[in-house]
Specification:
By secondary structure, this protein is an all-alpha fold. The chain contains nine helices and no strands. It has one domain. Helix 4 packs across helix 8 and helix 6 packs parallel to helix 8.
C-alpha cells in the first residue's frame, strides 16, 4: 500500500466515521482516490470489530455519502453527459438513435439492472453516469443507488469485522485482485471500442458498395 493510502487509513482511525463519510462522498462524485474505497470499508470494519467505530454510524455515514455523491454525479451526467457523448460519439459509432435504443432496453427492469451494475467492482461510477446519460427517472436511480450502496457497504464492513486483526495480511491480496480486475476492465473496454469501430467500417464499406455514385 502506498504512503498516501496509509495516510487515508490513519485519518479514518483517528477521526472515525466523519472522515470515512467525506472520503466516500468525494469518490462517489467521481474523483479518483489513491486507495480503493473497498479497502477503506474493510479497514473500517476491522475498527468496528475492536470497538473503535460505531457500526451504525459507520454504515449510515457510508450509505448517506453514497446517496449524496451518486446523486450529484447522476445530475451532472444527466445535464452534460448526453450532449457531450452525442458530440463525440461518432468516433465510436454512437448517435441519438443508438442511445434511444439502449435507453429503451435499460428501462426494462431498470431498478434491478442499475442496482446490479452498481455492485460490479470498477463499474460503480460508470453505472451512475450511465443512468444519468440515459435519462433514468431520478427517484428510481437514487433508490437503486441506496439499495446497492447498503449491500456493498454492509458486505465490506462485515468482512472487515470478521477479518479483524488479519486486515494487514489480506490487503496485498485484495490489491492484486483490484489491479487485475482494473486491467481486465480496460482490455474489455478497448475490445468493445474496437468491435464498434470495425462494425462502423464494415457498414461504411457496405453503404459505399450499394451506392457507388453517392458522394462520400
Amino acid at each position: 500500500m502506498t504512503s498516501i493510502g496509509s495516510e487515508f487509513l490513519s485519518l479514518i482511525a483517528t477521526h472515525g466515521s466523519v472522515v470515512l463519510f467525506l472520503i466516500v462522498l468525494v469518490e462517489e462524485i467521481g474523483v479518483p482516490l489513491p486507495i480503493p474505497s473497498d479497502l477503506m470499508l474493510l479497514f473500517s470494519g476491522s475498527l468496528v470489530a475492536n470497538g473503535t467505530l460505531n457500526p451504525i454510524l459507520t454504515l449510515g455515514g457510508v450509505v448517506a455519502a453514497i446517496i449524496l455523491g451518486t446523486t450529484a454525479l447522476f445530475t451532472l451526467a444527466r445535464h452534460g453527459g448526453r450532449p457531450l457523448l452525442l458530440r463525440y460519439g461518432r468516433f465510436i459509432h454512437c448517435d441519438e438513435s443508438r442511445l434511444d435504443r439502449i435507453e429503451q432496453r435499460l428501462h426494462v427492469h431498470a431498478f434491478w439492472r442499475l442496482t446490479a451494475l452498481r455492485l460490479i467492482p470498477g463499474l460503480r461510477p460508470y453505472g451512475t453516469m450511465t443512468a444519468g446519460i440515459l435519462g433514468l427517472p431520478r427517484r428510481l436511480a437514487v433508490l437503486a443507488f441506496a439499495v446497492a450502496g447498503m449491500i456493498w457497504a454492509s458486505v465490506w464492513i462485515a468482512l472487515g469485522a470478521v477479518l479483524g486483526p488479519h486486515f494487514g495480511t489480506i490487503v496485498p491480496v485484495l490489491q492484486r485482485v483490484e489491479q487485475t480486475a482494473g486491467l481486465g476492465l480496460v482490455v474489455a473496454i478497448l475490445l468493445f471500442i474496437l468491435v464498434l469501430w470495425s462494425r462502423a467500417r464494415l457498414l461504411a464499406r457496405s453503404t459505399a458498395t450499394r451506392h457507388p455514385d453517392q458522394p462520400r
